[in-house]
Design goal:
4-stranded antiparallel β-sheet; globular; alpha/beta
Length: 265
Amino acid sequence: MIEIRHFTGGYGSKPVLNDINFDVNRGEFVGIIGPNGSGKTTLVRTIVRLVRPFGGTIHFEGKDIRHMGFKELARKVAVVSQSPPVVAMTVKEYVLLGRVPHYGKLQFFETEQDVRIAERAMALTDTLPFKDRYISETSGGEIQLALIARALTQEPSLLILDEPTAHLDITHQVSILDLMRRLNRELGLTILIVLHDLNLASEYCDRIVLMDRGRIRKTGKPEEVLNYKDIEEVYRTVVVVERNPLSLKPFVLIVPEEVKKKCER
């Protein structure tokens, strides 16, 4: 679905990504991890043409994205960003904005079909119970679900999420990632997700991309990427990597400075 070759790009005249080679296959659930400033968000922004290219190519479904209009791209790729919406509208009104890329010429309002598609997305995300509530009156977890509902209303073949679990408690984190897995498995939706939590990435992602200083350090299955050597070198933090006794996926444990000093004695 996505083929990135020798891509270098950034903002203004400063490159952030250097010589990126990266593929996403249809139906995959791919996670991007790495420390702050490693280029995770910039990498996903390249796919929707928000990053200035200095070199290399990006193809989506075999087509160079430079030759795709923004509306065409928005009908295929939906993005759930980190920033909550600051809008004076209800959840339903906000979710319906996801239909805008599908509007025909001289269409200014949603059709009955648009409403049905939006309501189906809200049903999938459990946002129907508060569809008439204003965005400003909803909780952080509910806003995140509304963001996802709006993205699904675009009917994309690729869903990109940039740290959707940030600032959420573990209940909402698991709820959102369980939803992503269900959409991926049952609807065949391809998912590319940026995550800070290494253990969430391990549990939910088919494949993980480890970023470091604007480059891809390593990519592979969770057990191939999440090892103490690579994690310590990239994050510059001492860790212990064990296995979750139930899922058997890698589980990363941090080692506080005080504990490390005790072990050195």
